[in-house]
Amino acid sequence: MKNYDLNIQDPQDGVAFRKVDVIGCLDSHTVVGFEKSLHSLLDEDVTKLLINLEQLTYISSAGISALMGLTHRLRQRDGELVLLKPTDKVHRVFRTLGFTNIFKIVEDDSEVEASFKG
Amino acid sequence: MKNYDLNIQDPQDGVAFRKVDVIGCLDSHTVVGFEKSLHSLLDEDVTKLLINLEQLTYISSAGISALMGLTHRLRQRDGELVLLKPTDKVHRVFRTLGFTNIFKIVEDDSEVEASFKG
Amino acid sequence: MSLNTPMPDTIDLEIRCPIETRVLSILRNFVTSIAAYVGFNAEETDKIEMAVDEACANVIRHAYKHLGVSPDLPEAEQAEDANAAQCTLRLRLVLGEDFLKIIIIDNGIGMKNRPPGVDSLEEYTERGGTGGLGTYIIKNFMDEVEYDFPEESGTILTMTKYLISTAKSS
Amino acid sequence: MSLNTPMPDTIDLEIRCPIETRVLSILRNFVTSIAAYVGFNAEETDKIEMAVDEACANVIRHAYKHLGVSPDLPEAEQAEDANAAQCTLRLRLVLGEDFLKIIIIDNGIGMKNRPPGVDSLEEYTERGGTGGLGTYIIKNFMDEVEYDFPEESGTILTMTKYLISTAKSS
Ligand SMILES: Nc1ncnc2c1ncn2[C@@H]1O[C@H](COP(=O)(O)OP(=O)(O)O)[C@@H](O)[C@H]1O
Ligand SMILES: Nc1ncnc2c1ncn2[C@@H]1O[C@H](COP(=O)(O)OP(=O)(O)O)[C@@H](O)[C@H]1O
Fold first, then answer.
1. pTM confidence score
2. Domains plus CATH for chain B?
3. CATH number at residue D19
């Protein structure tokens, strides 16, 4: 059973951010591949990163820590991480633990552009 | 988690058979209650019995043997057992094991009346 | 294969549960999600589910009846404490790339000198449709089935289903 | 409560699994179906799922690292055969009428002299958001949490969730 997949969208003309879709679950098992892929992407000098959580069915502390790591790395280069449309289940985890105050979360595609500062 | 329920419908004027709905699963655990209820019902001199399998999610050999037992007991008094609309999963089990040749199975409410012989 | 030899590239799990029919639905749920994890489709998963249910129901109903532990016994003949009787039901699951092996182990009376299950549906109906269907289902729904009877006691049932199924009955 | 004392009217199951992160999704599935069986709603089930995942991930990542068994170790430092190291992860589940007790047992290095988890989200971010969140989740998502450290070795984590939840964090 494949319970994790990552889709890194190609850069698009006129779009200032890179979009990545995470599919399945982000736990201590799948987070290894996730971090590897995302840090390679950041090596390409990406500064504005949109992670689409629409199809993320589960996130553990390992997944959250990975998102924290990306947040820090992007801030160091004056970039930013934005999370798009987390599933109810994942959003509830963020809310219960207080991460809605730490991550920038956007509920609608139309708000994405404006959500990246600068 | 309640994974078994039985609904014995009241006798209805002008209807020659009694209808029973089995809900949930019929395995070695739940079959005990099922047999008890059904044999009490048969004690009421029911001869035509319709068991609605529309909501039966699982059946094991214990459930099948219980249906065989009812078939035999009803035949002894010239009665009959008819099974109504088994779920795909249950129907597949009947078919694979050959019980479609043993049980009278009816796929539509309109055929029920005619399916009882005599 | 020795019970304790790990196989490369497999996941090896074991679950122990009490001798009570209540556990059957829990075990079915577990095995169903494992079968889906390995990659079996719904129909194959249904067969695995049923084979495991039958095998575990047999342990619960037959393996410890002589010790007063079985749902088939009248209240008066039931042992006061099933745990005291040291009855065990172990389900070992070996998840392979293209197979699922399920090993069901009890330390009960064993199946050696017991009435065998039926070999066909005809035999089942001739016997009056009262029993013997469980082992028939197990043999027909799984690709490989083996019963072993250790010296000490009990029954070890090893059954395997392959992803590209060579099942005999569908 | 002794580990081996059965409680009346409960179902007591135990699952043993290898020290590999691959098993986490399997264990989550299992515990989720058990929680639904006991009667927890979706939100409570999510919390139980996450607490179990965190606890098992901790055993897999931390308990046997000193023996070369941990996904966090570089390839070169990994033990050749995790099975040889006799590493175990046992999950005992006690299903009650109105509670689910989950006992996670390892025979690893133990948590006594280890960096503790964080006590708040502030502490987590102050530490740089790198770790310590797992035990925080466990404590916040379950109703009762207790860590025991047996003389011999390892950690026993006992966590309970009640049906009419007295959870602290929702
Ligand atoms: N694990 C077991 N231990 C002891 N006896 C068993 C075990 N499994 C099966 N049996 C014996 O094999 C017989 C056939 O089993 P089965 O085909 O499932 O039919 P049924 O359970 O309906 O009798 C049982 O009646 C029982 O005597
Ligand atoms: N079962 C265990 N055996 C040994 N050490 C453990 C165990 N569980 C947790 N720990 C220790 O507790 C620390 C805190 O765990 P946790 O809060 O989950 O954060 P993290 O795993 O992110 O470090 C771990 O870093 C580890 O040192």
1. 0.91
2. 21-106 (3.30.750.24)
3. 3.30.565.10
